[in-house]
Write a structure and sequence with these properties.
By secondary structure, the protein is mainly alpha-helical. It is built from seven helices and no strands. α1 packs across α6 and α4 crosses α6.
């Protein structure tokens, strides 16, 4: 379990890097998830699909709950994603929209 928490924390730490570096975000947004995970590992933030998916879904659920909105096909943030790549949405919209305690709660349950 401890290793899994470390890997989930790597997801967050890695995603905060491209938020501060537009050049990195630009290159990553065009890559497949596997390629992004390889870059993350090369940068010292290894994680797997099993770490990434539940954490991201948990973060999206937390944000929907705080906004008192259903996390379904009509979730308003899906419209925010139009014209963006999913990774770009996660880095620029999802993470900055969450409070640190919400991220910590999602990490604990991922």
């Amino acid at each position: 379990m401890g290793g899994r928490l470390v890997s989930a924390r790597n997801v967050i730490a890695f995603m905060r890097g491209p938020a501060a570096r537009s050049d990195l975000l630009h290159s990553l947004k065009l890559m497949s998830k596997g390629e992004v995970m390889a870059v993350a590992a090369d940068l010292g933030y290894p994680f797997t699909d099993a770490d990434f998916d539940p954490l991201i879904w948990g973060l999206e659920l937390k944000l929907a709950a705080r906004r008192s909105e259903a996390f379904d096909a009509r979730f308003p943030l899906w419209q925010t994603m139009w014209g963006q790549y999913y990774f770009e949405y996660l880095v620029l919209d999802l993470l900055p929209s969450l409070k640190d305690d919400e991220i910590e709660a999602a990490l604990a349950s991922a």
